[in-house]
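RECORD TYPE: inverse folding
INPUT: structure tokens
STRUCTURE:
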């Protein structure tokens, strides 16, 4: 499994994400962004974070270090928000921590140079794992020391939410037209040629072994945790072989994305009553930018 640490101080909630992770200090003197099993997304989001994050790391993509965090809700008894307390009280035991990158900022197109090869590798990973959540409005990419880092992979592996239909998704092409790096002319063909051969059953078994048994237990349709791990390995290994059927292409340019957004906003306004015409349209836009420094005194 992943290395395990113990939470000693709950610093602050991160309200930018729907799962409301928290900044937590631990007994290894580290500070982590912790996603909790008691959040609405549940433990499958944490399973996806481990599988996709650790697969990305083994393919040479930058991902903050992950740790299992043993969390006692008592360390957060001072949190005043009742709804967040509900999440924390439901999250005793193992949760998932991602190393906090002080000073990191949300990626925005043009913030740093991203060449087609680098963009292609990220897009290829997202296409393989069905991660449609890394978009221009919600990039789930951070810039730290001038380098791109992948975060928030919990929305990937859509197939594991309905295993009875997972077989029909093995060759599925997901819509990545609004991908955060689509404007960088991602070379997914080169990424497929370079990364595809690396994603072997053996590598996938190594990654699945990092997921705690308790996050995989009691899955309907499976008689053991090992059987479920094997199902993940089998699905992703089969998907790699069929990459010609799901490789994305035809990414719109940044100008085309802006034009499409303007058309969508115009349609939205046209459907509003007169008294709502001037209300800002925030569709698809994050409520706040993620900036990690302000959580420290």
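DESIGNED SEQUENCE:
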């Amino acid at each position: 499994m992943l290395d395990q640490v113990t939470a000693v101080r709950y610093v602050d909630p991160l309200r930018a994400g729907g799962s409301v992770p928290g900044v937590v200090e631990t007994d290894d003197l580290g500070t982590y962004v912790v996603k909790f099993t008691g959040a609405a997304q549940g433990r499958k989001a944490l399973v996806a974070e481990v599988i996709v994050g650790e697969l990305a790391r083994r393919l040479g993509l930058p991902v903050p270090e992950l740790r299992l965090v043993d969390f006692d809700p008592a360390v957060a008894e001072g949190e005043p928000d009742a709804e967040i307390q509900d999440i924390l009280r439901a999250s005793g035991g193992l949760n998932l921590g991602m190393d906090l990158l002080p000073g990191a900022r949300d990626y925005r197109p043009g913030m740093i140079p991203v060449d087609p090869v680098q963009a292609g590798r990220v897009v290829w990973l997202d296409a393989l794992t069905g991660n449609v959540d890394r978009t221009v409005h919600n990039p789930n990419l951070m810039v730290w020391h001038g380098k791109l880092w992948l975060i928030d992979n919990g929305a990937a592996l859509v197939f594991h939410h309905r295993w009875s239909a997972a077989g029909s998704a093995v060759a599925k092409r997901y819509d990545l037209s609004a991908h955060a790096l689509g404007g960088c002319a991602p070379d997914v063909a080169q990424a497929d040629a370079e990364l595809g051969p690396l994603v072997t059953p053996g590598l996938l078994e190594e990654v699945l072994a990092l997921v705690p048994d308790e996050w995989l237990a009691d899955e309907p349709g499976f008689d053991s945790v090992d059987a479920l791990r094997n199902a993940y390995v089998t699905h992703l290994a089969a998907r790699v072989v069929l990459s010609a059927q799901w490789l994305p292409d035809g990414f719109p340019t940044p100008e085309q994305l802006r034009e499409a957004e303007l058309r969508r906003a115009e349609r939205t306004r046209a459907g509003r009553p007169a008294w709502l015409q001037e209300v800002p349209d925030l569709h698809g836009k994050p409520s706040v930018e993620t900036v990690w420094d302000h959580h420290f005194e």
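NOTES: The two ends are 33 Å apart (CA to CA).
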